[in-house]
Amino acid sequence: MGASSVLIDQTTLCEAARLLEGVSTPMARRTMGAVTPGTAERLAHLSTLLDALLLYDEVRVLDAQLPSDAEQLTLRRVLLDRRILRYVDTRALSVEVSEELTHFLRAAEAGPRQSTGLHSHPYASADEVGRSVRQLLDHAPASQSDGLVHALHSDVEGDLAHWWIGKWAEALHSDPVRILGTETLHFIGYWSSGAITGGVSHLRTFVYWRTAAHLRMPFQPSLRRLPVYHLMTDHVRRTVQDRVYEVVADSFRATVAEVYEDEEPLALYLPPALSLFLDHLRAHGDIAAAVDALRHQHRRLRRSLAELQQTLDTSSSLGEARAARKRLKAALETLRADLDPGDRTAGGTVDQLIEIVPGVVKAAANPLDVGGYADALLARPSDWIRSWWLRRPVRSALRLSTRLEDLSRYDRLLEEATGHRCDPAEVEALRRSYGRELELYGGDSRLPSAPPLTTAAEPSEQEPA
Q1: Which of 67, 162, 251, 459 has its CA 20 to 30 A from that of 156?
Q2: Phi-psi domain of 34 (left: phi exceeds 0; alpha: psi -120 through 50; beta: other)
């Protein structure tokens, strides 16, 4: 059986590893539009990474954004030594991904600009941004004057709920292509404010999204990626879902209702990976042994998910795919029965994403311009449509808001395992910040029964004069 793989971002991997190393941050606060992680955020990244280690045989990251301290991070070395962590050579996809980005930004560039009261500050050029991203993906050396490439290489992330974009929250959902694209260009163009980091975060998310699509691999975003990733993928899903379902149903000679039924996400019940890992680390003081124990104890879960993908890859009918999902559902229910009663609440879903397939739309098209996608899909042969539909990557969508709510209970265990404290006030600040981002960009899973993450009202950040 082939190995199952998931794409994660360097932020998840390296910040999780830095937590275990005790690496300090230059500033665990927000300043000039930039956000640097504190202990609570690093603990959230560790939780996300451990979930990926539970669910997939391999985790992959892009080799174009390798941080300067990568070789000193023990957790990273452990995963490399065990061939769990693998790098994606971005040079193979640099042209395709950078051109998709350029077309996306050109569409925003051609539309009307939002009014921020900062008209004197220029917008970045879509073509120049695309060239900088291609330079990064091609591993080309950056000149001292190319601040964007250097920013993309850095570890700093932007404030996704920056007041600029928060002013257009309603428009963001009705016209995400224009608002997100225009604000990305605005952030990058407005150098002196530090808001460039917000634009850089958006660019990174776009690159990971499109790279995963080209690799036919699920992407498990960090909490710094997921809100914007959700906005983009949900825009695609909402725009094309009904028409695509009609095309797929016609190719299988089935009804649209049957296709909808087969798309219902399966509830995913996960063991408390963070607790299990930290408990083992506290007892033995060995990061490698803690990883091995976690992976070995829950190998059945990885096998069940890998078997579903393998079966779907060889299926030829909706009936075969439906039977495979039923087997996975039964396996997940069995695994759930083995969990402690307090861990038997669904923390995510297993599903297949409706994605813009590279090559179906015209070459180098804007992947968020989905108006003619269903028609382009309809022009494909029926057997191609059937094969594409069945073989879409199986992904595990996790509800990160639930993870953040649980972080406070790990304070003592984290201190005993690593010597670091995670102040409950810091966890609450992170939870509220992430809540604002969810309100702005959308929810973090497809579970319909998930209660919304509410946040207390806070005074807005003062706008510059």
Answers
A1: 459
A2: beta
Q: What is the DSSP letter of 113?
A: P
DSSP string for 251-320: HHT--HHHHHHHTPPEEE----HHHHHHHHHHHH--HHHHHHHHHHHTHHHHHHHHHHHHHHHH--SHHH
- For residue 375, the SS3 value is helix
Straight-line distance from the first to the last Cα atom of the chain, in angstroms, rounded to the nearest whole number: 60
**Model-wide pTM > 0.90:** no
pLDDT at 447 exceeding the cut of 50:
no
| Length of the chain as a residue count | 465
Residue of 19, 27, 6, 69 lying closest to 45 (CA atoms):
19
Angle among Cα 128, 129, 130 to the nearest 5 degrees reads 90
Question: Residue 196: how many CB atoms within 10 A of its CB?
Answer: 23
Residue percentage of the chain with pLDDT more than 70: 83
User: How would you label 62-80 residue by residue, b for 16+ Cβ within 10 Å and e otherwise?
Assistant: bebbebeeeeebebbbbbe
CA distance 164 to 112: 16
310-356: per-residue pLDDT in tens? 999 999 999 999 999 999 999 888 888 888 777 766 678 888 888 77
Closest to 235 (Cα-Cα) out of 358, 371, 436: 371
